Every structure is written in structure tokens, then in C-alpha cells.
Amino acid sequence: MTVLETRLDGPLDVAVVLAGVMLLAALCLTVFRLLRGCTLPDRVVALDLISALLVAFLVLFALAVGVTAYMDAAIALALIAFLGTVAFARFAERDRPDGGRPVDDSRNDTGDGP
């Protein structure tokens, strides 16, 4: 059996095909958001979503073909994608105009408080 040759034998097969189509639509919309994102955080979120969708594709493919090695690849991709997201967040934090310092909201500059 090849990837393009699908036989819909039962409800699980139909569900896998429908999930694959929905994941493909979500991936297309996310790539559009990645290319048209206005700011760096928009693009980082789009990249993170693409990695999550690829993990879901790997899980669906493992379910469709019955090879559990793809599940291991999905777990490894999820871990690497998480580390990449953390690295992007630290990079975006460092590039902030205020130098990445947290804002102190407890200070009251209006003079009407304690």
C-alpha cells in the first residue's frame, strides 16, 4: 500500500482522511499567516503552529500506516519545536526597545496613591 492509495474500509479510515484534509487546510492558512504576519510575534506563533501541525501529521501518518516509529519522530519533533519556540521568545524579548526589562506596574506615577 502506498501513501496515495487509500481504501476506506471503516470509520477510522474515514476519520484519518478527514483529519488529514483539515490539517492540510490549517497548514495552508498558517503558512499564509507566516508570510503575511505584521510583527515578529505573529510569525513566531505561526511557526510554532506549523510545528504542532507537523506533529499531528506524523501521528496521523503513524496511525494510517501502522508504523510506530513515526510516533517517536513526532515526539522528537515536538520537543525540538518547543526548544525552538523558547529560543525565538528569548530573541524577541532581547530585541524589545526597553532592553527586555519587565515593566514595574506597582509604581504609581500619578501621585494620588500611597
Number of domains: 1
Number of strands: 0
What structural class do the secondary elements suggest?
Answer: mainly alpha
Multimerization status: single chain
Average the pLDDT over all residues and give the rounded result: 82
Index terms:
mainly alpha, elongated
Give a written overview of the molecule:
With 114 residues, this protein is an all-alpha fold. It has one domain (13-94). It is elongated. It has helices at 11-36, 40-65, 69-94. It contains three helices and no strands. The longest helix is centred in the N-terminal third of the chain and has 26 residues, at 11-36. It is a multi-pass membrane protein. Pfam families: MrpF_PhaF (PF04066). One of its GO terms (cellular component) is plasma membrane. Residues 95-114 are annotated as: Disordered. One of its GO terms (molecular function) is sodium:proton antiporter activity.
Give a short synopsis of this structure.
It is found in: Cell membrane. Belongs to the CPA3 antiporters (TC 2.A.63) subunit F family. The protein is 68% helix and 0% strand.
List the helices and strands and how they pair.
Elements (H helix, E strand, L loop, with lengths): L10 H26 L3 H26 L3 H26 L20
Helix pairs in contact: 1-2, 2-3
Protein name: Multicomponent Na+:H+ antiporter subunit F
Family: Belongs to the CPA3 antiporters (TC 2.A.63) subunit F family.
InterPro entries: MrpF/PhaF-like
